[in-house]
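The instructor's notes for this session suggest beginning with a concrete chain rather than abstract definitions. Hand out the sequence below and ask the class to guess, before any prediction is shown, which regions might be ordered.
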Amino acid sequence: MAGQSFLQAEDYPVTLERLNIPESDHTPAIRLFTVRPRKTSAAARPVLLHLHGGGYFAGQPELTATQLCQFAQELDCVVISPDYRLTPEHPFPAALEDAYTTLCWIMRNADTLGIDPARIGLTGESAGGGLAAGLALLNRDREGPEILFQNLVYPVLDDRTVTSQPDASPVGGEFLWTRTSNTFMWTALLNPVAAGSADVSPYAAPSRATDLSRLPPVYLSVGALDLFLDEDLAYAQRLIHQGVAVELEIVPGACHIFDQTDTPVAKRSIARRIDAMKRGFSL
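After discussion, reveal the predicted structure:
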């Protein structure tokens, strides 16, 4: 799949590069996949921090290289995606700390990267969407750099989905990502903490957070047949109730990772996300 993405990515007028955040006393080295427009810019560009999906146990930034190239071109921004540590070898909070390390590294290296540190956006799909939501919470609580928006695509938000009763829909969560998949993911991520227990951190499962105030505006997209539909809707509603600006897209007839296909439905959804991110960057 990554090879196919790269082949398609070559159609975009962008430059693909791999960078590394050096190892420190507290963090391992982190490989970064970066995409930037090929054309020169006199002004510093906005930066989009992307967190890939894969259930926390699989995947890499290059998995969605085509979309990242499209983002870089249409938003005229630099896209940076860390190859964060995966489960089961590295349970929570490894991936989250890698994401936060990347965010801080971007700020420190803004001049070298040619980006505007006052224009940082956040995006992620599936597990990466949950990781992005967790990063927004952690960054707020650590008083980190300002993030302009969160683009959350069918995000993983609530470990309690694995312990709740099946949805009334006979087809919800039956395609591509099932309750069995979800149970494996949460078990590996939270180890040794049990999914559904009172000890689960809100940074791992953002739906657990009681305080959702002062978070960046959210654009959330999810398919009507996705297992995560209910938890995503509940999270969006709570964000709204606590004063966070939310745009919500529910895609009829769409299951998990529906946008990884070359279909009109996927293209329309991606276009709407790009429009939302343009507004987030004030483009």
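Then share the key points. The first helix runs from residue 2 to 9. Residues 2-280 form a domain with the Rossmann fold fold (CATH 3.40.50.1820).
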